């Protein structure tokens, strides 16, 4: 088993997920694809959960990888420990994205209900009476147009990406610890007679 190859495979999966998370978070700043005033954007978007959490923290983990660990090579030992530390940070970034995305889905978007004031009309909903399960309440938001669907799709996408990234980074933590303890590659050695 080669933990270095496992790390590279996880990195190949995480890189496009991180890019998608960054793009999804950026799209939340433009409700329904329109430019709007910063004070008319849902407050949870400003936590940068897709850019920082699921994007940068996860992406930085997989910039380097080594194979064929040598216990006497101090730099490779440091590299393996750094890999575990960065995987922990990546998992924390994924969890952060999941938490903020969940809050964004539960509390709903900031919107104009028709009187010109931007409010959070769904923020006091209970979980059993949430707007997510009652589409007839969506008509309360007049501007920006389709803001509810925009937020639901993007926050759900970020929730899914953050979950996958957190799981993969946790797997990488275990993988890195195994590589640190046992070495990154176990090779069959030829014995000459």
Automatic annotation (TrEMBL):
A GO CC term assigned to this protein in UniProt: membrane
Source taxon at top rank: Eukaryota
Keywords, alphabetical: Membrane, Transmembrane, Transmembrane helix
Protein's cellular compartments: Membrane
Transmembrane segment boundaries: 12-30, 84-106, 152-182
InterPro entries linked to this entry: L6_membrane
Membrane topology of this protein: Multi-pass membrane protein
Family in the record: Belongs to the L6 tetraspanin family.
Protein name, as recorded: Uncharacterized protein
Native species: Chelonoidis abingdonii (Abingdon island giant tortoise)
Lineage: Eukaryota, Metazoa, Chordata, Craniata, Vertebrata
């Amino acid at each position: 088993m080669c933990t270095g190859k496992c790390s590279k495979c996880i990195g190949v999966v995480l890189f496009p997920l991180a890019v998608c998370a960054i793009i999804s978070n950026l799209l939340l700043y433009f409700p329904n694809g329109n430019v709007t005033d910063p004070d008319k954007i849902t407050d949870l978007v400003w936590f940068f959960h897709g850019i920082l959490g699921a994007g940068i923290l996860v992406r930085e983990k997989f910039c380097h990888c080594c194979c064929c660990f040598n216990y006497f090579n101090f730099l490779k030992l440091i590299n393996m420990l750094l890999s575990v530390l960065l995987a922990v940070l990546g998992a924390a970034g994924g969890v952060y994205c999941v938490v903020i995305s969940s809050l964004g889905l539960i509390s709903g978007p900031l919107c104009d209900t028709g009187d010109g004031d931007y409010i959070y009309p769904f923020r006091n909903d209970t979980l059993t009476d949430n707007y997510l399960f009652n589409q007839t309440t969506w008509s309360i938001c007049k501007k920006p147009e389709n803001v509810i669907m925009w937020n639901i799709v993007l926050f759900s996408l970020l929730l899914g990406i953050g979950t996958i990234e957190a799981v993969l980074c946790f797997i990488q933590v275990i993988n890195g610890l195994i590589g640190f303890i046992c070495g990154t590659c176990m090779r069959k050695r030829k014995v000459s007679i």
